Amino acid sequence: MMEKIFAYLTFRERLQVSHTCKLWHELIFCPQFCKRLFLYLRSSKDLEKPYAREMLARCRNIMIMRSIYEDPQLRLLKDYMKGASLKLLKIWASNHTAKRLLETILEVVPELRNLHLVLLGSLDQCTDEIIRITHQKLKRAVLIGHGNYTIECSKLTVLETDQVNEEMFQSLGCLQEQLQVLQLNGHRHSSHRAAYNVLSHYHWDHLRELELDGSTTDDLEESLKQMPCLQKLSLRGSQQIFTGKEVGTRLSELKLSGYCVDTDSFNRFLTRSSLKRISLLECTCCSAEVPLKSDSIRDLILDPMFQKRLPLFLSLEKLYLKGRDDTDFHHTLLQICEYYPKLERLTLYVGPGQIGMMRPTPDSTNVTATNSFSLLNKLDKLKDLHLNRIDLTGIDWTICEGSNVNYIHLKGCSIDGTGAEKIVRTFKHLRTFYFDYCYLRQPRADLFDIDKSSTDGLHWLARYCKISYHDIHIEELLELRIPNILFL
């Protein structure tokens, strides 16, 4: 019971009440609390603060910011962290400082699983020092910045780096039999062929996910032949033409960023491939009239829409769709209902600084034309509905009677109390209703019933539904500002 009470205290409040007695001290810094805590060391002087020894020994997540650590501070840090149950270590420092910190810490934290290293400074400031990363249980390493690394980690399965130099080339040769996820972004600082040379030079028997940041896919097909188990491929380009023939047909997931898709060639690739999920981010299309087609795709992300016609993926189950404030969401929903009869999860999203419109057309007598959401009744299998940054005021939700949706998540949306009431009354299967960063408007903003004191609010109307609010604003109730607390 005491641990649950202490869970509501801030870190400073915990430090204050921990002086009460030894029992409270142990409860305050229980393993459950320290497991969630992220400790920041912003300078070497933080080692002199009270509880520095205790927090370094107990915290599972530690970030060491840019600072200079001399020999006395390094010895103190090593003493404090010896045998610590650290799981995640982040270091932002210069090459020399990062090298000394890793030499000090890695040998005394046997349970470390994740390492995130960011080397500060430009290429001209990069020294020839070799940063050696040696650990028996490390599973994931993220290495960012200009540096020379050698990696000796027998359990490492995930590696992300933006350096593809001679030292990294040799380290990857030692890791080729164990890596399952590899992200090579080194050709931002060197020739793109450096990464492809690494990939084609070794045989990657266990590699399942690969991410490349390059300017061409000319050598990609040859490199992928060395990866018999590859399932997920992510490519970032600069509006190069992408046809699909570069990646083969074995993949189950493909993510493209910044490419121009050759529709005809890509459709031929989709016919032969076994893709289940595809993400098209900031992509364009060579033909605006010819839609993409596939019978195997189950999961689609379009960010943003680049054609007036949505892809014809008849087996689609999950759709994430980003539009703009001028996107015709009514026409979009018409296509969704026509093309995706098996859809189970729908996310409609508008980017930051924009608001999507869903308001009814007052002059129309057609129900479908006046209320786009009436189309949801045609999606019998739809269960999850996510709407981000869309104005929902004035929507008559009663037209959705009969929908099977049981989960609704509104983020950054405007909605009035009357509309929210109609949602909980209309969607009979609704069990979860989230309002995140929403503007709750009149009329009947009192129905949102934040403190659950009303007998006619949403909590009373939907007693079997979990309703929660996070950082919301209520119109004309300016004195009530909800903090970042989840209400169940």
UniProtKB/TrEMBL annotation:
Coiled-coil residue windows: none
Domain of life from the UniProt record: Eukaryota
Domain (F-box) spans 3-39
Entry protein name: F-box domain-containing protein
